[in-house]
Amino acid sequence: MTTSRAPVNRRRLVVGTAAFAAAIAIWFLLAGLGVVSGGRFPTPTDVWRNAQQISVEPGYGGGTLWQHVLQSVRLVLMGFAVAIATGVPLGLLMGTSRRADLVIGPVFSLLRPIPPLAWIPLAILWLGLGDGAKVFLIWVSAFTPALINTYAGVRNVDPTLIEAARVHGAGAGRLVRDVLMPGALPMIFTGLRLSLQTAWMTLVAAELVGAFTGLGKVLASASLDLNPGMILFAMAWVGLLGALSTKGLERLETKVLPWLAH
User: Fold this and answer.
1) How far apart, in whole angstroms, are the C-alpha atoms of residue 228 and residue 41?
2) How many domains does the chain have?
3) How far apart are CA 232 and CA 240, in angstroms?
4) Same domain for 236 and 124?
5) 204-208: which pairs have CB atoms within 8 A and are 24 or more residues apart?
6) Cα–Cα distances in angstroms (integers) from residue 250 to residues 30, 146, 183, 193, in the given order
7) Helix axis angle, 131-155 relative to 65-96, nearest 10°?
8) Mean residue pLDDT across the chain
9) Quick check: helix, strand or coil at residue 62?
10) DSSP β-bridge partners for residue 63
11) Which pLDDT tens digit goes with each residue over 121-136?
12) Which of 46, 77, 208, 218 could serve as 61's disulfide partner, Cβ 3.0–4.6 Å?
């Protein structure tokens, strides 16, 4: 007997909201008691003042809040899209072809441990200081989870289903479309969620590569200005956008895989 996820999700939402509200209340209390020093950790007043500053022209760090947000969202979506377009097909290929796995697997295993930040010098050398270098860095970080989870999803498909499809005359294309993809989709979506979260985590480092606008640029400028209020405000926006985009991907997953919602 299956049970709906809705009560569990509502309970998580209520508990999470209560915990967040409690943390904000403690923050205000500590600031009111003078425990929080504005020089090291911002008070609510500091954050509010910086929020007002960045929200109107000329803004802060080269632009207003919405200019920074739109630039960061654009970079993340571009890098994430390239990661999907490369990681998922390559994972399918490696999962279905032993020969491809033998050829690509060792190369991937060699490159996988290299952290995305280590690619910054090459990204600048190859692509300059424009958006291409930033998208490349985001792609490097988001590519790995997409490939690994797609590969694992394909390899976990019941071999009996594959053999039954072949017995009934399914060719390679139909086998992938009708058997492997449906069976691997839950793992693929898990990989996409991890990729999207990784893309947001890499954003700040990517925007250190000659950015003119973006939330990473705001963080870099605020650190040079020793402005903890602006740092916390920009961090909050990165977290909020990451959470909202992940939630959107989860909603897409429930539409594509409705049986997982029960």
Assistant:
1) 6
2) 2
3) 12
4) yes
5) 204/238, 205/116, 205/117, 205/120, 205/137, 206/75, 206/79, 206/133, 206/134, 206/135, 206/137, 206/138, 207/72, 207/75, 207/134, 208/120
6) 36, 15, 18, 8
7) 40
8) 85
9) coil
10) 60
11) 898 889 888 889 999 9
12) 218
Measured in whole angstroms, the distance separating CA 146 from the mean position of its chain's CA atoms is 11
Q: Looking at residue 54, what is its pLDDT? A: 94
> Are both 217 and 163 inside the same structural domain?
yes
Q: Sorting pLDDT into bands at 50, 70 and 90, what band is 1? A: very low
pLDDT tens digits, 163-182: 676 666 666 666 777 777 88
3-class DSSP state of 63: strand
What number is the average pLDDT over the span 66-82? 95
Q: For the domain that residue 199 is a member of, what is the CATH number?
A: 1.10.3720.10
pTM of the full predicted structure? Answer: 0.86
* Residue of 148, 153, 152 whose CA lies nearest to 87: 148
Range of 241's domain? Answer: 47-261
Residue pointed to by tokens 């893309």: 199
How many angstroms separate the CA atoms of 85 and 81, rounded?
A: 6
Give the type of residue at 167: V
In this structure, what token pair is assigned to residue 94?
């490696």
